[in-house]
Structure prediction request, 104 residues.
Amino acid sequence: MKAGAILNDLLRLAHFIVPGEVERFFIYLTDEEMFSYLQNPNNGFEALNRDHGRLTITQEFVLGRAKSVRKMIKVPPVVCSARNVSSRDVGRGQRLSIYFVEPE
Prediction:
């Protein structure tokens, strides 16, 4: 469900449209358990944890996630990408990551 909430927030940022140039950033503080989930290639989110890794989100990507992930998505899927800008251990088993989100 947490992965679904992440995906929903990334999609919400992609839907955010304003006149002129705007940069969309998603800042995420996670524990070891969730970081491990995102790193697992079977879950499809591993690109988020590579330095400068890019996760492309499409309707097919969303439909390919577990039911528990899909049920957390409250906005229509749009094609967008999330690129890892920075990710580092901040102690106490926590990791801080910053992603740049771009609608495509």
